[in-house]
């Protein structure tokens, strides 16, 4: 167990009528049943953090913290009752229920994965949230099967970088949209058969041309808004569309005839409310199916930049301004 009793952390405070991040000190948490305590080396920065900050937090469920941060890498320093796999000293990356913006964080044992030796702490920290999200939505909910094709809308986002690499590495034909020709090319370097510049190309028309009019089987969309209609056009008969974000708006009209005629499935999800058993099953699948490719270097996190923990507000601004490709991390331990 760590000898520290307090820790550096970043919390959300009300300042002049709005919410902002501020440095603070908090007690080091104690692991409960089935939990591990991680000495955090690095933390990932995600869109959920932005929403949490702007809303002044979110409803705190039992066992959760008000501190932001959904993913970290670090060293386990203590374990709670019932933890069977992990021991103090193990290097892991983990999906959290919050609290990653701190020197110590709690994680359910089933949400931890071994840190790949070929990755830095910061690179490992930005894996869990995107990899859990991609696997749960594309390979579990949408059941992308052998021989099926996949479209990622938002190809150079953190989710997009992970989705393209995972789907392509597992043998699927992948298409991806991105803003600008340069980013479309990055998508092809990641493994997409075709990167589509949505500023100059209609992605539904490109998909039709590339697939002989058939369309793709699964679309993962973080854009929302007016992309919905084009998504429906781009899907093959029996295709599946899942929304996990809505950068262009949550409210948009839908022509249900397009859904019914092609027997499409349209849905959406959030990762945080998923039950613990589901997340543990996703972690096990990732370790079996994806982690060997991460360790070999075939699948690589794309870390755009890192900020010091105390500069978390700058990291959030960078994410909001969309000046990054891939992921942003916070360095909690120097080096």
UniProtKB/TrEMBL annotation:
<dbReference type="InterPro" id="IPR020843">
    <property type="entry name" value="ER"/>
</dbReference>
<dbReference type="GO" id="GO:0016651">
    <property type="term" value="F:oxidoreductase activity, acting on NAD(P)H"/>
</dbReference>
<dbReference type="InterPro" id="IPR013154">
    <property type="entry name" value="ADH-like_N"/>
</dbReference>
<dbReference type="InterPro" id="IPR011032">
    <property type="entry name" value="GroES-like_sf"/>
</dbReference>
<keyword id="KW-0521">NADP</keyword>
<protein>
    <submittedName>
        <fullName>NAD(P)H-quinone oxidoreductase</fullName>
    </submittedName>
</protein>
<keyword id="KW-0560">Oxidoreductase</keyword>
<feature type="domain" description="Enoyl reductase (ER)">
    <location>
        <begin position="17"/>
        <end position="330"/>
    </location>
</feature>
<dbReference type="GO" id="GO:0070402">
    <property type="term" value="F:NADPH binding"/>
</dbReference>
<dbReference type="InterPro" id="IPR036291">
    <property type="entry name" value="NAD(P)-bd_dom_sf"/>
</dbReference>
<dbReference type="InterPro" id="IPR013149">
    <property type="entry name" value="ADH-like_C"/>
</dbReference>
<dbReference type="InterPro" id="IPR014189">
    <property type="entry name" value="Quinone_OxRdtase_PIG3"/>
</dbReference>
<dbReference type="Pfam" id="PF00107">
    <property type="entry name" value="ADH_zinc_N"/>
</dbReference>
<dbReference type="Pfam" id="PF08240">
    <property type="entry name" value="ADH_N"/>
</dbReference>
């Amino acid at each position: 167990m760590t000898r520290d009793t307090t820790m550096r952390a970043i919390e959300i405070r009300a300042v002049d009528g709005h919410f902002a991040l501020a440095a603070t000190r908090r007690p080091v948490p104690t692991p409960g049943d089935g939990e591990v305590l991680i000495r955090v080396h690095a933390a990932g920065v995600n869109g959920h953090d932005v929403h949490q900050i702007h809303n002044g937090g979110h409803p705190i469920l039992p066992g959760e913290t008000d501190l932001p941060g959904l993913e970290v890498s670090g060293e386990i320093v203590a374990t709670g009752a019932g933890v069977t796999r992990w021991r103090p000293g193990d290097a892991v990356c983990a999906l959290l229920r919050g609290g990653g913006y701190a020197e110590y964080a709690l994680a359910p044992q089933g949400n931890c994965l071994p840190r790949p030796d070929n990755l830095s702490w910061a690179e490992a920290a930005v894996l869990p949230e995107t990899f859990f999200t991609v696997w749960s939505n594309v390979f579990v909910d949408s059941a992308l099967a052998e021989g099926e094709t996949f479209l990622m809308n938002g190809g150079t986002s953190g989710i997009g970088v992970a989705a393209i690499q995972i789907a392509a590495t597992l043998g699927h034909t992948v298409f991806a949209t991105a803003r600008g020709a340069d980013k479309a090319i990055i998508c092809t370097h990641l493994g997409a058969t075709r990167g589509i510049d949505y500023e100059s190309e209609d992605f539904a028309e490109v998909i039709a041309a590339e697939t002989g009019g058939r369309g793709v089987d699964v679309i993962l969309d973080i854009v929302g808004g007016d992309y919905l209609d084009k998504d429906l056009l781009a899907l093959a008969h029996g295709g599946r569309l899942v929304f996990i974000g809505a950068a262009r708006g949550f409210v948009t009209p839908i022509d249900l005839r397009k859904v019914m005629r092609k027997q499409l499935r349209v849905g959406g999800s959030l990762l945080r409310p998923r039950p613990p058993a589901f997340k543990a099953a996703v972690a096990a699948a990732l370790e079996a199916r994806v982690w060997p490719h991460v360790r070999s270097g075939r699948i690589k996190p794309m870390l755009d930049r890192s900020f010091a923990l105390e500069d978390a507000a700058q990291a959030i601004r960078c994410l909001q301004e969309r000046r990054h490709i891939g992921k942003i991390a916070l360095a909690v331990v120097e080096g």
